[in-house]
């Protein structure tokens, strides 16, 4: 039987498939660095820890750069220009490449997505011109950095991962962020985005345990737009079994430069 027996009109439907990270044993995960508004103390602690355990891949899980001047919110004229942020990001890549010497995956978070939205709103006439895409601005291909699209989720063996902005309306819960992720995803998964470390587990009738995690940030903890919050510094890493299914997830907090 043919795929289209009724000769229906052509469709622009897209297949929504995960980005699979394969072939690595130990993957570091850094979320919400928000360059150039990062915490040098926390970021230093995270890099030192990942260097010590010898990760062979690094996932920058969204909001690595802030893109403040491209925001739809009111811009603070005292904040850094977008060009400065891009230069800061390139300098950060040099540090990572030198210290960790590993494969880098770059997830587009809601802050990086500001660039694409800015182009669509302000300069849609430039669509299709080589060199203006975000991946070209940060020289991703030249550095061997693999870009993971904004709304695409990830698979690390049987562990699912998102930045946290992919669900429309966001993820929240009265207990913790990880519980909110469980309620939305119903699978074992991790996310960043909410700048706080949490964990939630539930067991079904058959005894299967599903666990979700939210990862702390590596940015300043008390920005002008939200000085009072429940954020904390943190990062994570995951050991992947060679069987392509199993994994061990480690969710780390950082307090005053010390990994807990």
Q: How large a portion of the residues is in β-strands, by DSSP E?
A: 15-25%
Give the count of helical stretches.
6
Structural class: alpha/beta
**Which residues form runs of ≥5 with pLDDT under 50?**
none
Main beta-sheet strand count, sense and barrel state = 7 strands, mixed
Record keyword descriptors for this entry.
seven-stranded mixed β-sheet, 23% helix, six-stranded mixed β-sheet, 23% strand
List the SSEs and their pairings.
Elements: E1 19-20, E2 26-30, H1 40-53, E3 57-61, H2 82-100, E4 103-107, H3 113-122, H4 134-137, H5 140-143, E5 146-148, E6 154-156, E7 159-161, H6 177-185, E8 189-191, E9 198-203, E10 209-214, E11 233-240, E12 247-255, E13 258-259
Parallel strand pairs: 1-6, 2-3, 3-4, 4-5, 7-8, 8-10
Antiparallel strand pairs: 2-11, 6-7, 9-10, 11-12, 12-13
């Amino acid at each position: 039987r043919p795929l289209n027996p009724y000769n229906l009109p052509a469709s622009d439907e897209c297949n929504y498939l995960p980005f699979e990270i394969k072939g690595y044993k130990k993957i570091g995960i850094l979320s919400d660095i928000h360059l150039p508004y990062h915490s040098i103390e926390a970021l230093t602690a995270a890099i030192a820890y990942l260097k010590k355990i010898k990760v062979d891949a690094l996932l920058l899980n969204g909001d690595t750069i802030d893109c403040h001047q491209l925001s739809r919110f009111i811009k603070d004229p005292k904040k850094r220009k977008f060009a400065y942020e891009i230069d800061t990001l390139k300098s950060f890549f040099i540090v990572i490449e030198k210290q960790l010497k590993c494969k880098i995956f770059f997830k587009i978070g809601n802050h990086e997505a500001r660039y694409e939205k800015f182009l669509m709103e302000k300069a849609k006439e430039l669509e299709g011109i080589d060199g203006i895409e975000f991946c070209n601005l940060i020289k991703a291909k030249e550095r061997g950095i693999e870009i993971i699209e904004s709304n695409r989720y990830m698979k690390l063996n049987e562990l699912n991962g998102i930045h946290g902005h992919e669900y429309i309306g966001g993820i929240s819960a009265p207990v913790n962020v990880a519980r909110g992720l469980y309620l939305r995803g119903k699978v074992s998964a991790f996310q960043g985005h909410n700048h706080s470390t949490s964990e939630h587990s539930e067991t079904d009738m058959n005894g299967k345990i599903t666990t979700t995690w939210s990862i702390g940030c590596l940015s300043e903890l008390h920005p002008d737009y939200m000085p009072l919050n429940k954020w904390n510094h943190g990062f994570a890493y995951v050991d992947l079994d060679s069987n392509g299914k199993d994994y061990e997830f480690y969710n780390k907090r950082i307090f005053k430069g010390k990994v807990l």
